Amino acid sequence: MNRSQAKLTAGIDWPVLGMYLALVFIGFLAIFAAEYREGDQVIQNLLAQNKNWARQVLWFGVSIVLATGIWLTDSKFFTATANLFYAFGILLLLLVLAIGTGVKGSNSWLELGGFRFQPAEFTKLCTALALGKYISAMETDFTKLRSRLIAVGMVMLPWALLFCRTKPAWRWYTWLSSSSCTEKGCPAYCS
């Protein structure tokens, strides 16, 4: 292995990657075992995406492509664009309020052609990135009430938008805000 290859793979947490692949494989086997019937055309079902296990394979491929893209991206990109992603996530939640569609009783989905997704899941990631950027900034002083209120406001805005339309997802946001407070050294009442 030459130096550039060694440098490229140095940041990979191999045990975590191995566990991820094992869990995906076990999940795939469980879904495949539940759905497979003797005589099923495996290749045709995979290409047609008409079985749950086939969609699992598709999304595994998508996740590998996204993970590779994130891995190859300079980490400064995420710091530089955290607030932009946060604003985009809030915009998506506002779109859900206006044009969201219902799936199994939850009106928290956006449909683009034949593709459906929940913006709340993307916004969770965006909130974590923006909050992490804010909390780690040198000028953020968590001994001051203003800094704590800004952090809480960053968490509560998407929570309020979610609460308007979806089943309450407040536990995740409560956990996020309390864990970020304890990491930065907030008083005990914050956690």
Compressed to H and E, one letter per element, the order equals: HHHHHEEEHHH
Structural class: mainly alpha
**Integer-rounded radius of gyration:** 21 Å
Give the integer mean of the pLDDT values.
81
Report the portion of residues in β strands: 5-15%
Please describe the biggest sheet, giving its number of strands, its sense, and whether it closes into a barrel. Answer: 3 strands, antiparallel
Produce the secondary structure layout.
Elements: H1 3-9, H2 14-35, H3 42-48, H4 52-72, H5 75-99, E1 101-103, E2 106-112, E3 115-117, H6 119-136, H7 145-165, H8 170-184
Antiparallel strand pairs: 1-2, 2-3
Helix pairs in contact: 2-4, 3-4, 5-6, 5-7, 6-7, 6-8, 7-8
Task: Kindly describe this structure.
With 191 residues, the protein is mainly alpha-helical. The chain contains eight helices and three strands, in the order αααααβββααα. Strands 1-2-3 form a three-stranded antiparallel β-sheet. The longest helix has 25 residues.
